[in-house]
UniProtKB/TrEMBL annotation:
Record GO cellular component, one term: cytosol
Domain of life: Bacteria
Protein name as it appears in the record: XRE family transcriptional regulator
Keywords for the protein's UniProt record, in alphabetical order: DNA-binding
GO molecular function annotations of the record: DNA binding; DNA-binding transcription factor activity
CDD domains on file: cupin_XRE_C, HTH_XRE
UniProt domain HTH cro/C1-type: residue ranges: 14-68
Organism name: Arthrobacter caoxuetaonis
Length: 184
């Protein structure tokens, strides 16, 4: 992630939510399963978080992923495909861009995912009650629960429990998908 504005926004959100929870950086790190140094770097805006780190932090704080990356807006929101702020995965060619954060009273986030063949993006379980909805836009990908991934083609839709281990494995170059993460 090279966008300094996004790094600063994430850092401020992590600090705000950690303080709101009444936790030290060490306590948040322990609950999220990451290092205290990583939390400190993120809070200073110097960190370069992966999707996995942000999910771990948001799960530990009991928040949707978007609470850590959403800039907020009062008017119409337009996200051009070539300007979406991407957060990379740690070990897979997989980037997620938050398109729409959960509005007040709702519990869902909308993402654009870009992935390439190679290492599969494996996700740890999210908060209990999370359902993921995937619409494959381009390419093909094996998506869903670890042991029951389904090969999706453009236009295919799949819903599965996001509170269990799951996978997104691109099978073709230029694979893209829209993912809605819903907390019921």
């Amino acid at each position: 992630m090279a966008d300094p504005e996004l790094q600063q926004r994430i850092g401020a959100a992590v600090r705000r939510e950690r303080l709101r929870a009444g936790w030290s950086a060490a306590e948040l790190a322990r609950r999220a399963g990451i290092s205290k140094g990583n939390v400190s770097q993120l809070e200073s805006g110097a960190g370069n978080p992966t999707v996995e780190t942000l999910w771990a932090l948001s799960d530990a704080l009991g928040l949707p992923f978007s609470a850590l990356v959403d800039p907020g807006s009062a008017g119409p929101i337009l996200v051009r495909a070539d300007t979406a702020q991407e957060v990379p995965a740690a070990s897979a060619s997989y980037n997620a861009s938050l398109l729409s954060a959960c509005p007040p009273g709702a519990r869902r986030d909308l993402y654009l995912v870009k992935a390439e063949p190679g290492e599969a993006k494996r996700s740890a379980p999210h908060q209990p009650g999370t359902i993921e909805h995937v619409v494959l836009v381009t390419g093909s990908a094996a998506v869903g629960p670890d042991a029951e991934a389904v090969l999706l083609q453009p236009g295919d839709y799949l819903a599965y429990r996001g509170d269990a281990p799951h996978v997104f494995h691109a099978m073709e170059p230029g694979t893209t998908a829209i993912i809605v993460s819903e907390l019921r």
